[in-house]
């Protein structure tokens, strides 16, 4: 177990270092001088050079990389060119929206998908399965912004239960903030749940054909108990893999939903930073996402070992 | 009164009839053997009693267990019976246990479910049961996971699960087919003791007549879903009144007719293995430490003459398959040399091995797994032709495939079919056709008949014998089944813990084994003659 853990951790750190080099290199190669960008086209060459020195841009490449990477470690991402505030403040502000949103959406998606998958797998080929999987097919096919619009129409415009958009911040207490995150979370969760339900179903169907399921039934356990106690845990590995991928997507891949609901999230920050060539923000957010994805993958790897004892004793 | 009574049971799955007018009964404390070839409906009979049939199955007739009408019972009633009054043991111990639960959890689960006992009480009972089936707590704590146990040990766990609540009836469906003969004997002993201890009824399902004869008081012989003959084991098998019973008995003892072996002892040996050892690196116990190397094959030397048929016998895990892989140059020895037709094959690269590959081919155990299901027979059988120096034209290739198919008793029109269109026995013929198409000098056959029914197995053994006589092919048969060794080989090598511990003429070694390993194998091997004789004594 310790060996497995150490190996996974080493791989995770190595990936992170490699990714940081790639991100740094790409921004070095891209044309455009940040100092020139900040000072404007009319600045003199001397002024630009002065700023370049201040920003440390004239130092040799490896030194600059180490400086930048060291900064990342102490959460010093530099200053945004366009907003002129520390990038970390921008990111922190946006994460306060995006992280809860992603977590709520992920929880919703899991809560919907696993029971649907169990239901479908245990009624394979029958009417209930056909209906559930038809709905899942629809969930995968229909774009989430359309769901979002429908949700706004029904719950915000018609029933007036939740706001149609915007984010009041966490300062006013958790309830208003959560209320405004609810619809976007549902809109995000539905397509994810549809995918996850299909994965759960097919993983379960495979497991239900295994000999040990028959052994469990021969013990006298009712079908439902066999499904929950024996089948589900064995079917968890593909489900966990998909969950890990979905979390990464939900954290930053939500630009459209954030736009529909006017949410100041991470997705919109990146989008704006790209259009405004605010490369240091792009760079920082990308690194943050890389770190998040690697951390989640590490978590998924570890959860494999929790689920499957064979991974604990093998290398 | 009988414990289990099956009367006029008919079963269809979809539109396919599986059982027709099946009759069978088991009394308390009695062992009933249910024998038949694959597809005869043996397992479906067991699943009918358990009511674990596939959805599309429809059963009519009467199945009564302990006064309960099984076919009319609700799922709740069946759940109360399964695991409590009726236990079941399955064929494949490697997959019969849930890999993510400990053996303690899995044995205790049924106990807790049926008796509503506390976890601690159930675990205590589970512990006693595991002790009883031969898994003592010192080596096998409840916290062990299935993957930490061997096949025989796992089968003991499955038996512990089935017998934990002292069922009135135990159904064992091919409980030892996947195990080597020594483990088989141990598991059968265990089942016999458990039956005697608690006057359990045992329905023992097997394709192996010898196993059933050793175990069963009465026997039912099933073919195509119909009972051919049923009665006391001794009488049924000694008189062999029914032609099918006779056919089964003869097929199980079949010895192919072979003239004297080819060129034994003459000239240059075909294969020489000298001091071959194979080590595998030990398991890493932590980041920096490794367990010592595992020596799978330990200083083995042997020699085979052209046309000679040799059996390599031993228990599972003794290293016989590793040795075979090295002979086929699919694995490299850690030390020692292997010479084939006088040339060294060890340490050569693929290109240099090509001529040797042409002259050695292999037949595997599983006729289902060894073919790509999406390719036609022509392509599958022609596969080894790529080792020829001159690539045959399409017409030549078809000609060669047709010839090979003819030699193994298949029709040349079969070459345009796909593997799934053939039965198990025909598929094994296909793999033999594939092996002989390059006219090899040596065929290594790894348990080539152990997945086959007795009558098919007799035919395949005949085919091996015929090809040996006609083409002078030498065989190295890897098997744990001594009847196969006796039927078709001239010499036998007994392997144990990576070493060859005994060698000699097949009949001499099998009749008068000298080494401990050979003695154990011979004693454990079920033998129909011996079993019938013993039954005759017991049953008069």
From TrEMBL, chain A:
Q: Which residues form a coiled coil?
A: none
* InterPro entries with a match to the protein in the record: BPD_transp_1_N (IPR045621), MetI-like (IPR000515), MetI-like_sf (IPR035906)
Q: Which keywords does this Swiss-Prot/TrEMBL entry list?
A: Cell membrane, Membrane, Transmembrane, Transmembrane helix, Transport
A GO molecular function held by the record: dipeptide transmembrane transporter activity
The entry assigns this protein to a family as follows: Belongs to the binding-protein-dependent transport system permease family.
Q: Which GO terms describe its cellular component?
A: plasma membrane
Q: Which organism is it from?
A: Mesorhizobium sangaii
What broad class describes the main subcellular location of this protein?
membrane
Protein name per UniProt: Peptide/nickel transport system permease protein
Q: In the UniProt record, does the keyword Transmembrane occur?
A: yes
Which CDD domains would you find in this protein's record? TM_PBP2
Transmembrane portions of the chain: 95-119, 140-161, 181-199, 237-257, 285-307
Q: How does it sit in the membrane?
A: Multi-pass membrane protein
UniProtKB/TrEMBL annotation, chain B:
Q: Which organism is it from?
A: Mesorhizobium sangaii
Supply the name of the protein.
Peptide/nickel transport system ATP-binding protein
UniProt domain ABC transporter: residue ranges? 4-249, 282-522
PANTHER family in the record: D,D-DIPEPTIDE TRANSPORT ATP-BINDING PROTEIN DDPF-RELATED (PTHR43776:SF7), TRANSPORT ATP-BINDING PROTEIN (PTHR43776)
UniProt lists the family membership as follows: Belongs to the ABC transporter superfamily.
Q: Does the keyword DNA repair apply?
A: no
List the molecular function annotations (GO) for this entry. ATP binding; ATP hydrolysis activity
Instruction: State a single Pfam family of this protein.
Output: ABC_tran
- Keyword annotations for this protein? ATP-binding, Nucleotide-binding, Transport
Which taxonomic lineage does the organism of this UniProt entry have?
A: Bacteria, Pseudomonadati, Pseudomonadota, Alphaproteobacteria, Hyphomicrobiales
- Which GO annotations describe the biological process of this protein? transmembrane transport
């Amino acid at each position: 177990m310790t060996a497995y853990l150490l190996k996974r951790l080493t791989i995770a750190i190595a990936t992170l270092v490699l990714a940081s080099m790639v991100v740094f290199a790409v921004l070095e190669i891209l044309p455009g001088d940040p100092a020139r960008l900040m000072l404007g086209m009319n600045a003199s060459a001397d002024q630009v050079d002065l700023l370049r020195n201040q920003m440390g841009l004239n130092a040799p490449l490896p030194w600059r990389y180490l400086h930048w990477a060291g900064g990342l470690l102490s959460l010093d991402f530099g200053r945004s060119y366009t907003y002129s505030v520390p990038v970390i403040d921008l990111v922190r502000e946006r994460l306060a929206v995006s992280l809860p949103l992603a977590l709520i959406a992920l929880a919703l998606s899991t809560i919907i998908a696993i029971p649907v998958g169990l239901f479908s797998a245990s009624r394979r080929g029958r009417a209930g399965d056909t209906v559930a999987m038809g709905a899942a097919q629809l969930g995968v096919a229909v774009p989430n912004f359309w769901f979002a619009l429908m949700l706004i129409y029904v719950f915000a415009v018609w029933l007036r239960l939740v706001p149609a958009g915007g984010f009041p911040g966490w300062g006013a207490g958790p309830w208003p903030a959560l209320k405004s995150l609810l619809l976007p979370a549902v809109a995000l969760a539905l397509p994810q749940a549809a995918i996850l339900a299909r994965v759960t179903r097919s993983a379960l169907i495979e497991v239900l054909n295994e000999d040990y399921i028959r052994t469990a039934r021969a013990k006298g356990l009712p079908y439902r108990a066999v499904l929950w106690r024996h089948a589900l845990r064995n079917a968890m590995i593909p489900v966990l893999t998909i969950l890990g991928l979905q979390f990464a997507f939900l954290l930053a891949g939500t630009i459209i939903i954030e736009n529909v609901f006017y949410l100041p999230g991470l997705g919109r920050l990146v989008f704006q930073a790209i259009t405004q060539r605010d490369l240091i923000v792009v760079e920082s957010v990308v690194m943050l996402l890389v770190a998040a994805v690697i951390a989640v993958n590490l978590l998924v790897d570890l959860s494999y070992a929790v689920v499957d004892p064979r991974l604990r004793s093998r290398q | 009164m009988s414990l289990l009574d099956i009367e006029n049971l008919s079963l269809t799955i979809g539109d396919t009839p599986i059982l027709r007018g099946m009759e069978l009964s088991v009394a308390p404390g009695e062992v009933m053997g249910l024998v038949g070839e694959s597809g005869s409906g043996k397992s479906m009979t067991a699943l009918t009693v358990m009511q674990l049939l596939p959805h599309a199955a429809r059963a009519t007739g009467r199945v009564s267990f302990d006064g309960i009408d099984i076919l009319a019972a609700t799922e709740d009633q069946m759940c109360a019976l399964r695991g409590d009054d009726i236990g079941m043991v399955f064929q494949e111990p490697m997959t019969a246990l849930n890999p993510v639960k400990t053996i303690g959890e899995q044995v205790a689960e049924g106990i807790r479910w049926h008796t509503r006992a506390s976890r601690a009480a159930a675990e205590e009972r589970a512990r006693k049961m595991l002790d009883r089936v031969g898994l003592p707590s010192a080596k096998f704590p409840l916290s062990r996971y299935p993957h930490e146990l061997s096949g025989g040990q796992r089968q003991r766990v499955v038996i512990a699960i089935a017998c934990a609540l002292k069922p009135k009836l135990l159904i064992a469906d091919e409980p030892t087919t996947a195990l080597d003969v020594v483990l088989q004997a141990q598991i059968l002993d265990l089942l016999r003791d458990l039956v005697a201890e608690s006057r359990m009824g045992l329905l023992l399902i097997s394709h192996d007549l010898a196993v059933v004869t050793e175990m069963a008081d009465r026997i039912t012989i099933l073919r195509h879903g119909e009972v051919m003959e049923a009665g006391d084991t001794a009488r049924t098998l000694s008189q062999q009144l029914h032609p099918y019973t006779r056919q089964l008995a003869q097929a199980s003892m079949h010895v192919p007719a072979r003239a004297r072996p080819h060129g034994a002892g003459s000239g240059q040996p075909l294969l020489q293995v000298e001091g071959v050892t194979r080590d595998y690196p030990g398991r890493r116990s932590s980041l920096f430490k490794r367990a010592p190397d595992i020596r799978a094959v330990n200083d083995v030397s042997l020699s085979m003459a052209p046309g000679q048929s040799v059996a390599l016998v031993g228990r599972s895990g003794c290293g016989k398959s590793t040795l075979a892989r090295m002979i086929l140059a699919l694995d490299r020895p850690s030390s020692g040399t292997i010479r084939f037709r006088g040339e060294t094959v060890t340490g050569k690269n693929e290109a240099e091995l090509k001529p040797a590959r042409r002259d050695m081919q292999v037949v595997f155990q599983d006729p289902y797994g060894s073919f790509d299901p999406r390719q036609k027979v022509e392509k599958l059988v022609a596969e080894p032709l790529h080792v020829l120096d001159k690539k045959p034209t399409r017409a030549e290739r078809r000609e060669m495939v047709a010839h090979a198919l003819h030699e193994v008793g298949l029709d040349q029109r079969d070459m345009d079919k796909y593997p799934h269109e053939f039965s198990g026995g025909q598929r094994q013929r296909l793999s033999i056709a594939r092996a002989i198409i390059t006219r090899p000098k040596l065929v290594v056959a790894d348990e080539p008949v152990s997945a086959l029914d007795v009558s098919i197995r007799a035919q395949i053994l005949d085919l091996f014998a015929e090809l040996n006589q006609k083409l002078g092919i030498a065989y190295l048969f890897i098997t744990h089944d001594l009847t196969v060794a006796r039927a078709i080989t001239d010499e036998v090598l007994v392997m144990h813990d990576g070493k060859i511990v005994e060698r000699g003429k097949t009949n001499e070694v099998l009749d008068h084994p000298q080494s401990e390993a050979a003695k154990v194998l011979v004693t454990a091997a079920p033998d129909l003659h011996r079993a019938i004789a013993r039954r005759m004594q017991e049953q008069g």
